[in-house]
Amino acid sequence: MTGHADPQTLFRREMGQGSAPVVLLHCGLGHSGMWKGVAAALDSRARMSAPDLPGHGRSPGFPAGIDVVAAAAQAVDGLIRPGTHLVGHSFGAVVALSLALARPGDVASLTLIEPVFFAAAPDHPETAPHRAAEEAIFAVYETGDHRAAAEAFNALWGGGVPWDRFPPDVQEAMTRQMPFVRNTEPALWRDTLGLAAAGRLETLEMPVHLLRGSATVRVIAAVQEALAARLPHVRETVIDGAAHMLVMSHAGAVAAAIAETLDWAATARHPEPSPAAP
Fold first, then answer.
1. What does the DSSP 8-state code read for residue 29?
2. Domains detected in the chain
3. Which of 93, 167, 218, 236 could hold 210 in an S-S bridge, CB 3.0 to 4.6 Å?
4. What pLDDT is attached to residue 270?
C-alpha cells in the first residue's frame, strides 16, 4: 500500500496488485483507511485507489459555497479512467452514483453500499420516521452543541458502537465534522443535484450492485428498493448480521460482493456467444 498527498488534491491510498481499476469512496466522517480490510481481501483482483474525501482524513477541506456531494465528486473525478469500477459506502455511495451519472461511459460497474440517498424514496413508509430522527439531530446541532449532535449521529449510524468506546481524538474529529453532516441535507434529502430526476437513473447501463447489512438502519432498505426499481441492470446483496459500518465489521463479505461485481461486469462486456441456430 502506498500513500499520496498533494496540497491541491486529495490524499489517497493505493492498494492491491490486481488488474481491475477500482476507486473506493468512504462514508461521511470516515477516511480511506476504513477500506484496508476490503482491499486486503481483493489484493490479487484489483488495483485500488481510496481517497480521503474533502474535509476528511488528510485531504483539504471542502471549498466554500459548493454542495458537498458535488464538491466531493469534482475532487474525485480525476481518478476516473475508462473501465473504472466505482465503489462507495454511505455518503461515498451517493458521490459514486453522481460520478456514474456524469461519466457513464467510463464506469464499468457501480457498487453502492448502503447509499444514504433518501430522496430516492420520498414516499416510502420508512422515510418519514427516519427524517424525524435526523431532524432531531439537526435540532441539537442548531443549539451549538456539536458534540451532543455528533453523539446522537453516531447512535443512529455508528453500527452499535457506543460513543464512549471512541478515543477522545476521534470524538473530537467527529464533533468538528458535524457542519459537513448538516450540509449534506440538500443533496441527500432534497436531491438538489437532480440525481433522481425522472428518467435519469434509467440511463445507467453498467452493472449496479446494491449492498447492505441485515441489521442496518431501516431506511436503507427503502432507499435500495427505490433505486433497484429504476436501475436497468441491478442486483442486491444483504450481509447477514451486518450494520451500517459493514465495510469494517464484515470486510470479507463486502470484498466478496465487490469481486462478484467485477465478474458480472466482465461478463457484461464479454457476453457468452448465443447458441448457433439449427
1. T
2. 2-119+192-269 (3.40.50.1820)
3. 236
4. 53
Averaged pLDDT for residues 76-103: 97
Residue 83 zone, left/alpha/beta (φ > 0; ψ -120 to 50; rest): left
Given this model, what pLDDT does residue 277 score? 37
Place of cell 441489521: 215
Classify residue 27 as left (phi > 0), alpha (psi -120 to 50) or beta: beta
Sign of the Cα pseudo-torsion (213, 188, 255, 209, in order): positive
3-state secondary structure of 176: helix
Closest to 75 (Cα-Cα) out of 163, 129, 7: 7
Question: What is the C-alpha end-to-end distance of the chain, expressed in Å?
Answer: 53
pLDDT at 214 exceeding the cut of 80: yes
Q: Which residue has the cell 457498487?
A: 111
pLDDT for 212 equals: 98
Q: For residue 267, how many other CB atoms are within 10 A of its CB?
A: 11
The x, y and z cell numbers of residue 64, run together, are 466554500
Q: What is the pLDDT of residue 5?
A: 41
- What grid cell was written down for 118? 433518501
Q: Please count the other Cβ atoms lying within 10 Å of the Cβ belonging to residue 20.
A: 22
**Nearest CA among 91, 42, 39, 65 for reference residue 259:** 42
Check residue 3 and give its pLDDT.
Answer: 53
In a 3-state reduction of DSSP, which class is residue 154? helix
What is the reported pLDDT for 273? 43
Q: Convert 45-78 to b/e letters by CB count within 10 Å (16 or more is b).
A: bbebbbbbbbbbbebbebeeeebbbbbbbbbbee
